[in-house]
């Protein structure tokens, strides 16, 4: 049985316990606590999605927009359900988020998209500049930074706003037989392939940056740009860009040096 948000009722029931769960390592857990955030529990979102079919012209570089939208929407569903669980816990954010995809044996065009991370609550309701830790979406922030990077970010005077992403599924044109044969044994650029991969990456990056602008971010840290072949064959691939959007929370961005306590000599 699922709730109106698509989150199973058993999942919501699991959250109401006195013992927190976390996928943070011990070091990450302690650094997140030192940064001023208390772990509340492990939160999870899933979407099993049927990815449709769209054919590209054999000799043309082109985005396959139907597939781009499918991959994006499926990830959004998983992220949204994870955020629902975090909200149920009263969290300010989710740290250490992992966003994965796995195609299932019961269909080559059926994939499960999952999002998982540790929900956290700030020790103080407001960030140093007086604003809430909750971004302008009204939902808990999300971040895929490690516990160590999260500690550094907070102590350097920045706040995470949310994970931002961009997706582009692209069909790469085939070369004609004569052109392919003319390249045999030669060191030479293949412009049609270069242009396709360049364009696909740019589309994914541009969409990720647009999400960051909507969050009123100053920038994006920890960006990863992945090429994912999935199940579509050698001439169709997905480029996926993801990172954590951030904003400054104080004017200086220096990390305080810890005070060292030296032992007294006898």
From TrEMBL:
This is Heavy metal-binding domain-containing protein. SUPFAM superfamilies: YbjQ-like. InterPro entries: UPF0145_dom_sf, UPF0145_YbjQ-like. Belongs to the UPF0145 family. PANTHER family: UPF0145 PROTEIN SCO3412, UPF0145 PROTEIN YBJQ. Transmembrane segments: none annotated. Pfam families: YbjQ_1.
């Amino acid at each position: 049985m699922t709730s109106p948000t698509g989150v199973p009722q058993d999942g919501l029931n699991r959250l109401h316990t006195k013992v927190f769960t976390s996928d943070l390592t011990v070091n990450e857990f302690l650094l997140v606590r030192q940064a001023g955030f208390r772990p509340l529990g492990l939160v999870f979102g899933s979407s099993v999605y049927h990815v449709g079919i769209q054919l590209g012209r054999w000799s043309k570089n082109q985005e396959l927009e139907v597939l781009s939208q499918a991959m994006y929407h499926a990830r959004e569903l998983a992220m949204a359900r994870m955020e629902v669980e975090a909200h149920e816990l009263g969290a300010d954010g989710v740290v250490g988020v992992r966003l994965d995809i796995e195609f299932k044996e019961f269909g080559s065009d059926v994939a499960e998209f999952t999002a998982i991370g540790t929900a956290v609550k700030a020790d103080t309701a407001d960030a140093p500049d007086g604003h809430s830790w909750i971004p302008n979406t009204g939902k808990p922030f999300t971040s895929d930074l490690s516990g160590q990077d999260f500690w550094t970010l907070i102590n350097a005077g920045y706040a995470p706003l949310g994970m931002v992403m961009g997706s582009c599924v692209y069909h790469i044109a085939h070369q004609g037989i004569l052109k392919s044969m003319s390249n045999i044994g030669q060191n030479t650029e293949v412009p049609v392939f270069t242009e396709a991969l360049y364009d696909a990456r740019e589309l994914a990056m541009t969409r990720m940056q647009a999400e960051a602008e909507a969050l009123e971010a100053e920038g994006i840290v920890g960006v990863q740009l992945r090429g994912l072949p999935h199940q579509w064959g050698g001439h169709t691939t997905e480029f996926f860009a993801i990172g954590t959007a951030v904003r400054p929370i104080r004017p200086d961005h220096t990390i305080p040096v810890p005070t060292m306590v030296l032992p007294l000599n006898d």
